[in-house]
Amino acid sequence: IEHLSGVDFEKRETVRIRDRYDASVPTVVGAVARQKPVFVEDAKFLRQQTTQPIKWALPGPMTMIDTLYDNHYKSREKLAWEFAKILNQEALELEAAGVDIIQFDEPAFNVFFDEVNDWGVATLERAIEGLKCETAVHICYGYGIKANTDWKKTLGSE
Questions:
Q1: How far apart (Å, rounded) are the C-alpha atoms in residues 124 and 81?
Q2: Alpha-carbon gap, residue 65 to 52, rounded angstroms
Q3: How does pLDDT run across 48-87, given as a tens digit for each residue?
Q4: What is the mean pLDDT of residues 122-130?
Q5: What is the percent of the chain where pLDDT is above 70?
Q6: What's the half-sphere exposure (Cβ side, CA atoms, 13 Å) at 112?
Q7: 150 Rama sector, left if φ>0, alpha if ψ -120 to 50, beta otherwise
Q8: For labelling, which of 16, 66, 140, 147 has a CA lying 20 to 30 Å from the CA of 113?
Q9: How many angstroms from the chain centroid is the CA of residue 110?
Q10: CA-CA distance, 20 to 31, in Å (whole number)?
Q11: 135 by DSSP, 3-state: which?
Q12: Which residue has the higher pLDDT, 17 or 61?
């Protein structure tokens, strides 16, 4: 998000991320817009280095909005639609740069079920719109299962 206008990294607010923990995050202070490609030059470089398939992971719109404080749109849904357009621009350019598979990471899908049904899937579909390459969606979060939480307790405080 450092290549976006409308996001102030100096103005930080505390938000609850994934409905699990509080974090200090940048603030959306104006209309978000992509100033330049984020990963396209890296993808072009990688494509020159290999003939193997390239997979690139991008965050999904719902996950992006969950890690920012919105002081502009005042609506998670509206902000997600803006990020969907921005992600689509980046994804189309990554595809043109030779990326074979584009994966969207949406861990927020495993937390905000009502929003996923209401507009989350639609914003993800907008991010994927027009891509001809293979696409994937990763929804993690097996973290809360008992075996994992029990194991983490054995690690100590850090």
A1: 9
A2: 33
A3: 999 999 999 999 999 999 999 999 999 999 999 999 999 9
A4: 99
A5: 93
A6: 22
A7: alpha
A8: 147
A9: 14
A10: 28
A11: strand
A12: 61
Query: E strands, the chain, where?
Result: 4-17, 21-34, 55-59, 69-70, 101-105, 134-138
Query: Residue for token digits 């030059």?
Result: 41
Q: What is the domain partition of the chain in residue ranges? A: 4-153
Longest dimension (CA), the chain: 47
pTM for the structure as a whole: 0.87
Top CATH class of 4-153 equals alpha beta
* End-to-end Cα separation, the chain, in angstroms: 28
CA pair distance 19, 116, nearest whole angstrom: 14
Strand pairing category for 69-70 and 134-138: unpaired
Strand partners, 23: 15
